[in-house]
Amino acid sequence: MREITVNQVERCNLAIFILGSIAVAVIIRDVMAFFSFAVASAIVIFNFRLLKNIIAKLVLKQEIGKKDLLITLPLKFILLLGILTVIVVYGNIKPVYFLMGLSTVFVSILVSQLLPVFSSSSPKETR
């Protein structure tokens, strides 16, 4: 496995968000399926970026304060949980497409890892 950067995962995540939203809109032709996928994927992208920023601030400080661990991370988690709860309870979502949208970060990490394997431009090992 090769080392991937967070920026590569974010770019891949954005591409999967756009391509997945277009695919759901064209293939399924259901507005609520498109809405469910797009909203869930956007929430996960926002969460990934927010978590990246929080971790980057913690690493750059070189000292981890109790405030950061006891307030910032749980507050982010509660905010995400609240947004998901409001959307699931009050939104008329399609659960399958919503779960597909929530899995875009996982898929983008897999794609980022597997892309060099199938790409001809990556250097091959010689034995």
Key traits:
single chain, 127 residues, mainly alpha
**Total of helices:** 5
Shape: flat
For the terminal residues, how far apart are their CA atoms? Answer: 17 Å
Order of helices and strands: HHHHH
In short:
The protein is mainly alpha-helical. It is built from five helices and no strands.
Your description of this structure?
It is a single chain. This protein is mainly alpha-helical. The protein has one domain (6-104). It is built from 5 helices and no strands. The chain has helices at residues 6-28, 31-61, 66-90, 95-102, 104-118. Helix 1 packs antiparallel against helix 2, helix 1 crosses helix 5 and helix 2 (31-61) runs antiparallel to helix 3 (66-90). The longest helix is centred in the middle third of the chain and has 31 residues, at 31-61. 17% of the residues are buried. The model has no long low-confidence stretch (mean pLDDT 85).
Helix and strand layout, with pairings?
Layout: H1 6-28, H2 31-61, H3 66-90, H4 95-102, H5 104-118
Helix pairs in contact: 1-2, 1-5, 2-3, 2-4
